[in-house]
User: Fold this.
Amino acid sequence: MAVYVISDIHGCYEEFLRMLEEINFSYEDSLILAGDFIDRGKHSLEMLEWLEGCPVNVQPIRGNHEEEFLAYVDVMLQLDQKEELATDRNSNSETAALYSSVQYFMKQSGIAVSYFDVYGTVRNLIDHSGVTLGQLCRWSEMIRQMPYYRELTVGDRACIVVHAGYTESLKDISALYSSRKDFFLYAREESCQMGGKPHGMIIAGHTPTVIKGEFSYHHGKVFRYYNQEKDCIFYDIDCGCVLRDRNPQASLACIRLEDEKVFYV
Ligand SMILES: [Mn+2]
Assistant:
């Protein structure tokens, strides 16, 4: 029985399934997914569908891409209500029309359309997979149930799994962040510098370890940092799987918490 963590799958559904095989994932183990299941990669739909039916020993956490997906669906629902469009939630063509209306109203209001559905994922789901407003609402409700982090004890360490960074108090990060939530979702190098937990271990993703110049650059292997002052281990396990086409060092990583063993696919 072991606890595994995978982060930043970004629609790399096939690699994700291969990883489950690689670690021999069974009903006796548990798996925490540290967010960013969707966007950028080709198979956001498959990831959303897999998450909907995922077994109880899989615990998803939300990443910034899920948080943004929620916001896009909310904008669609708000416009539908405000303009009394009465969009049929089971109709793909009416969902497509609602999507276009959102873009139209943004243009009319002088808001850059590029702020909405930044990665085009909602558009693709509607245009290429026949997705309806009803499905989008179901997925956004699913995401709303996902916590921002999970805490568990591994050996003698308090272990936190989070998308980007963890801090116990807003005071420690208030120079750069206005809420702990923003730190959970968006922290970069501050995760090591300002975040952490005394005698703890933080497992995060968010910043691919294949990007030169980033704090976590490690040739596509997981990045590990030890903060002596806090006696806290920090891991960035986003090895940039979705960037693989452009970067041969990129891969999908999975860490087993008990012995910190890392698997790559
Ligand atoms: Mn992210």
User: Anything to note?
Assistant: The domain at 3-62+146-264 is CATH 3.60.21.10 (Purple Acid Phosphatase; chain A, domain 2). DSSP finds eight helices and ten strands in the chain.
